[in-house]
Specification:
mainly alpha, two-stranded antiparallel sheet
Length: about 140
């Protein structure tokens, strides 16, 4: 750290004063000014509780598969990258966009939704007969 002479200290004091006048006392306080032993103790206790919670969650969610530990979430997670209408994989950006907005792939959007958006918003969905005729 560079040594501070009187001129630099005065400049810092002027800046602090201007900041205080403009934004108030809180703007120039150091983060440590409101910290005490009680807050430190609470903080350490919260960190300890969080570490214990993370450890217990890790122990509960890990499953051994062929010598490797894998989280159960990965094993049980259903693929959300399928079209609920035709069950095809969501692959392209067009598919992603349609999945987000219409809950279908692009192909189903063109087939069932485009030009009939109001009907779709009201809840109409193709039944199995319609799907089998097209697919």
């Amino acid at each position: 750290m560079l040594p501070l002479d009187d001129e630099k200290l005065n400049e810092i004091a002027k800046l602090e004063k201007a900041i205080k006048e403009r934004w108030g006392e809180e703007a120039i306080k150091t983060p440590q000014s409101g910290w005490d032993e009680t807050k430190e103790k609470d903080y350490k206790e919260q960190r300890k509780e969080l570490a214990q919670k993370i450890q217990s969650n890790d122990a509960e969610t890990l499953e051994e598969q062929k010598g490797f530990f894998i989280t159960k979430r990965l094993l049980s997670k259903e693929s959300k990258s399928k079209c609920p209408i035709c069950s095809s994989q969501i692959k392209t950006l067009k598919d992603e966009t349609c999945k987000t907005k219409w809950d279908s792939c692009f192909k189903c959007y063109v087939q069932w939704i485009e030009g009939r958006e109001e009907r779709w918003k009201e809840g109409w969905r193709p039944d199995e007969d319609h799907k089998s005729k097209i697919s």
